[in-house]
Amino acid sequence: MLRRIVAVKRVLYDALGHFNDDDGWSMASHLAISALMALFPFLIFATTLASFLGAEAFADTAVHLVFDTWPEQIAKPIANEVLNVLTVQRTDLLTYGVLLAAFFASNGIEALRTSLNRAYRVTEDRGIIYRRIQSLIFVLIGSAVFFAISVLLVFAPLLARLAEAHFEWISPYMGTITFWRYTIAATVIIGALLAVHMWLPTGRRSFLSILPGIGFTLVAWVVGSMIFGAYIDNFSSYASTYAGLASIMIAVVFLYIVSAIFILGGELNAAISRYQEARARVGA
After folding, report:
1. Are 71 and 228 in contact (CB under 8 A)?
2. Total structural domains in the chain?
3. 101 with 41: CB under 8 angstroms?
4. Which residue ranges does UniProt annotate as crossing the membrane (predicted)?
5. What's the Cα-to-Cα distance from 216 to each of 150, 167, 210, 256, 264, rounded to whole Å?
6. pLDDT digits (tens, 9 = 90+) for 174-231
7. Burial, 21: exposed, middle or buried (Cβ in 10 Å; 0-12, 13-18, 19+)?
8. What DSSP string runs through 187-223?
């Protein structure tokens, strides 16, 4: 028992120490702003692509998938405006505007890559063209996933009725459309975390080696969102301080917290790996 406590302390000191010494707070700011700048171009690009392919319900689905996982106090002021932007008719799928949107969205992927390379203590050795193509592929895959989910949610009520008609025992487990939205959003988040930890940073990592950091990230995101939401409700003076900019400032601070937790997840994985390697050397 004492050995486990010592191991946990060493891993945590290593992770937090490296996060602080390697400009983790600055990287969290960079990642938060990059995420905010990439989010809207990504949604515009993905919505335009989905509309071109006939998925007219995509905008509403995308907004729910992105913002339903945010605290309501943060998401509500932004989600309606985002939906208004996304429902503007666009016919410029193959024009420079949407291509630039895809490029700016890929900048968010590059910010994730930089943050994870630092967290995992590795030096990037892949060419810029390879990295940019990989980032664009991530954007396209994300768009395709959102597109598939939007189609699935359109047919979900029909599929649910068919399932209940043939299997009566399944009715209590079907839930509501809101339940399925949360379930799908959680699945997308977990899948995205697995993908970025596995393939964005340089080098190789095993599936099991990235699970502790991902588990920490998910739990800390939930706890951090609840605490920040309660703070906004009860103690915040953002509205009086920033007036019309309050919703943007709240979103930036929230994304900063989310980004710091995300980087700490990578630091935790790296610290665990270093501890295990040190133990293996001592055992040898």
Report:
1. yes
2. 1
3. yes
4. 31-53, 93-112, 133-159, 179-200, 207-232, 244-264
5. 29, 38, 10, 17, 9
6. 556 566 667 777 888 899 899 999 999 998 889 999 999 999 999 999 898 888 877 7
7. exposed
8. HHHHHHHHHHHHHSSSS---HHHHHHHHHHHHHHHHH
Contact predicate 58/87, CB 8 Å: no
| Rounded CA separation 92/73 (Å) | 34
Which residue, among 110, 140, 125, has the nearest Cα to 31 in the 3D structure?
A: 110
Dist CA 27 CA 49 (whole Å): 31
For tokens 């995101």, the residue is: 221
Cα–Cα distance measured from residue 166 to residue 160, given in angstroms and rounded to the nearest whole number: 10
Report the candidate in 278, 200, 229, 271 with the shortest Cα–Cα distance to residue 24: 271
Structure tokens at 63: 């907004």
Q: Which of 111, 129, 18, 39 is nearest to 81 (CA)?
A: 39
Residue with tokens 């980032």: 135
- Domain with 122, as residue range(s), is 2-283
